[in-house]
Amino acid sequence: MMFNPQVIIEKLPELGSGLFVTLLLWIAGIAGGVVIGFLVATARRFGGFATNAVLGSVVEVLRGTPFLIQIFLLYYGGPFVGLMLDPIPCGLIGLTVYSAAYYSEIFRAGFAAVPVGHVEAAGCLGMTRLQTIRRIQIPEMALIVLPPAVNLSVILLKESAVLSIITVPELTATVSAIGSQQYAYLEAIFILAVVYWALVELTDRLGRAAEYRLSRLRFSKA
Amino acid sequence: MTLPAIIIRNLVKRFGETTVLQDINLEIPEGKVSCLIGPSGSGKSTLLRCLAFLEESTSGMITINGEALGFFEKPDGKRERLPPAQIRAVRAQTGMVFQQFNLWPHMTALGNVSEALKIVRKLSKADAEEKAMAQLRKVGLENRAGHYPSQLSGGQQQRVAIARALALEPKIMLFDEATSALDPELTGEVLKVMRDLADEGMTMVVVTHEIGFAATVGQQISFLDHGKLLFSGPPSEVFAKPRHPRLDQFLDTYLDRGASMLI
Lengths: 222, 263
Known about the structure:
The complex is a heterodimer.
Chain A: H1 6-9, H2 12-46, H3 49-64, H4 67-77, H5 87-113, H6 116-124, H7 129-159, H8 171-182, H9 185-213
Helix pairs in contact in A: 2-3, 2-5, 2-8, 3-5, 4-5, 5-7, 6-7, 7-9, 8-9
Chain B: E1 6-15, E2 18-28, E3 33-37, H1 44-51, E4 59-64, E5 67-68, E6 71-73, E7 79-81, H2 84-91, E8 94-97, H3 109-119, H4 125-138, H5 154-166, E9 172-176, H6 184-199, E10 203-207, H7 211-217, E11 220-225, E12 228-233, H8 235-238, H9 245-256
Parallel strand pairs in B: 3-10, 3-11, 8-9, 9-10
Antiparallel strand pairs in B: 1-2, 1-4, 4-5, 6-7, 11-12
Helix pairs in contact in B: 3-4, 3-5, 4-5, 5-6
């Protein structure tokens, strides 16, 4: 038997639809994860002890279990508690919640890295707590978290492959199916690796360009 | 005889078991430069931070231009915290300059100076920036208005920080080792701005290791050691021989390093 990726490349249009679903779920998952993660981190930072403790435990559970198991439980376990979801919405919710937990940790660390003195300076100039959070702490946190947030986004792209087990017609599911039809499993997996790698490389470049543009806002050495 | 700008009465500050300030009583005269000197860990920075309400004292009172800072004393002698808006109003009388500058990295020099004018004083963007520009001019940095902190030298950053504090027109300026993070070449430009301010009659409280600055610009020198205010007076008295033995010992460490201006 020959290694012949040509078999897969001939099926490019089908591959395209899988790619589209992957990109859609990935981008929507990032958007939802960033928004929810930001809200969770902000609530934990400024919302008092109880809020921090409750949200902290939720985040720990989500970070402490594999995504594969979470998504499996949500899709196949959901109906037992009256939660009937189609594969794509289920995948989107799963990816969003999972990424929100990790984004919230990145943002939490970002808030903690804003120098206390920057907050004190705002207080000395008469800013209220809320003004300081909005004008100083959130923008500085955003600058600090850019590199780890891009890194997490790249990881999420690859994690989205897990959604194939709940029959989401994304890239991995589509290409595997083509591979089965054509009896070209290895070629399929090889093409998959190339496509994921190309996407990751592209994202990394975008992230680095953003970092470069923002580099003059970097923290100066006092 | 004008009222003192700041009156500190029986001020005590403890961090847990450690007493950092023990029963400090001091009056800061208006329109003069008061320097707080002393070895590391003597409590001078903590005292200054209490004046800026960045640290809350454990007991005692601070009065700024006749108004109680942070707490008021009830007739039975117990303290009660004032409401936040009232605390902000009293804090507005002081401007603070930090050792680490603490400029906000996501704003230009102009942005740093105009920010509080916009969101605290509610000035329009144009008015705030005009006022901010005037302050930057005063510290000689009008041509650096569009630069971000990372694009400025340490001395320039500290001058922006001074302009930022001055923009809100405080009556008293507090300096917490404003030149300690700078190398000797950059120290001069910051000290010059501080001298100019002193010449204008600004009330200043300066925590400093620059004994030369304290001796030449300071009009009241207060020496702290182990959380106690050992003595306070004009430099002509404080630095005249015979000196307090603890001050002598402290100054020796400076003389050892070649600072001979006081012999």
